[in-house]
Write a structure and sequence with these properties.
The chain is of the alpha+beta class and 317 residues long. It has helices at 27-30, 32-38, 41-70, 91-102, 117-145, 149-152, 242-245; strands at 155-157, 161-166, 169-178, 184-196, 203-208, 218-219, 225-230, 251-260, 266-274, 278-280, 282-284, 288-290, 295-297, 305-307. The record marks 134 as: Role in the control of polyamine-mediated channel gating and in the blocking by intracellular magnesium.
């Protein structure tokens, strides 16, 4: 069977693109900070460099303009003449003075004199503008670097889901794991079933019960866990059999959420299983073994399954 279009890829990327926004695209500018954080790194770095470059050139031009209007560029700066900014004779020297002031380097060769009220006002404006630009751009870069998206890459899902009997009940199961030693606090898992409905409702979405009533959806993810959905009369797979699985078309979207222990930020990892990735009559191989004083997890067997005797009939049958 050829691979069909997925709603969510195996790596968690949602295959949804928004188009024809019209006038609603202005909402991105009203939340410009979030828009800037959501941009790709190359655009963030470009905006970062352009903003600082333009701000530096504009402010250096203002300092040069004050010196030009006062005639400081053509006067000798000494005891007989007090300029606005000492030792500023051209645009490069005005630019160096701005950088020294903005970066609080203070080499001492260039400085504002007390006989330049316009320079004092410009100095205050530069200090305020520099603080705002630094807070905005550096804050944006910090938030982008600390986003928990990369943490989600160390959360694993089994490549396939399985259907077999567990405690004499037919269950749909898949496996999740955490590759890091740091824990996911308050980890919770949810499942959505996507099925095609028709022309006016392309996708129908319903919930798969993975232990909401019993609290089994709250995970203590220190070792790989097998998530179980019991197929009963309330399950959307109540009429699913081994034969009908070959002709069904559905997608199970799995969402794992939790708080990153080291940063305190909420992390979300996603994956999906289509009907081709559901194995009837299989079970996952054990991955944990007891060593000398600790439990060892063998991730080489994380995706491995083996066949077990399973009735080919649906629960309804």
């Amino acid at each position: 069977r050829r691979e069909r279009q997925r709603f969510v890829d195996k790596n968690g990327r949602c295959n949804v693109q928004h188009g024809n926004l019209g006038g609603e695209s202005s909402r991105y500018l009203s939340d410009f900070f979030t828009t800037l954080v959501d941009l790709k790194w190359r655009w963030n770095l470009l905006i970062f460099l352009l903003t600082y470059t333009v701000a530096w050139l504009v402010m250096a031009s203002l300092w040069w303009g004050i010196a030009y209007l006062r005639g400081d560029l053509h006067q000798a700066h000494g005891d007989t003449y007090s300029p606005c900014v000492a030792n500023v004779y051209n645009f490069p020297s005005a630019f160096l003075f701005f950088v020294e002031t903005e970066a609080t380097i203070g080499y001492g060769h260039r400085y504002i004199t007390e006989r330049c009220p316009e320079g004092i006002v410009l100095f205050l404006f530069q200090s305020l503008l520099g603080s705002v630009v630094d807070a905005f751009l550096i804050g944006c870069m910090f938030i982008k670097m600390s986003q928990p998206k990369k943490r989600a890459e160390t959360l694993m899902f089994s490549r396939a889901a399985v259907i077999s009997q567990r405690d004499a009940k037919l269950c749909l199961m898949f496996r999740v794991g955490n590759l890091r030693n740091s824990h996911m606090v308050s980890a919770q898992i949810r499942c959505k079933l996507q099925t095609p409905e028709g022309e006016f409702l392309p996708l129908d979405q319903c919930e798969l019960d993975v232990g909401f009533g019993t609290g089994a959806d709250q995970l203590f993810l220190v070792s790989p866990l097998t998530i179980c959905h019991e197929i009963n009369s309330e399950s959307p797979f109540f009429c699913l059999s081994q034969r009908s699985l070959r002709s069904e078309q559905f997608e199970i979207v799995v969402i794992l959420e939790g708080i990153v222990e080291t940063t305190g930020m909420t992390c979300q990892a996603r994956t999906s299983y289509t009907e081709d990735e559901v194995l009837w009559g299989h079970r996952f191989l054990p991955v944990m073994s007891l060593e000398d004083g600790f439990f060892r997890v063998d991730y080489s067997q994380f995706h491995a399954t083996f066949e077990v005797p399973t009735p080919p009939y649906s629960v309804k049958e």
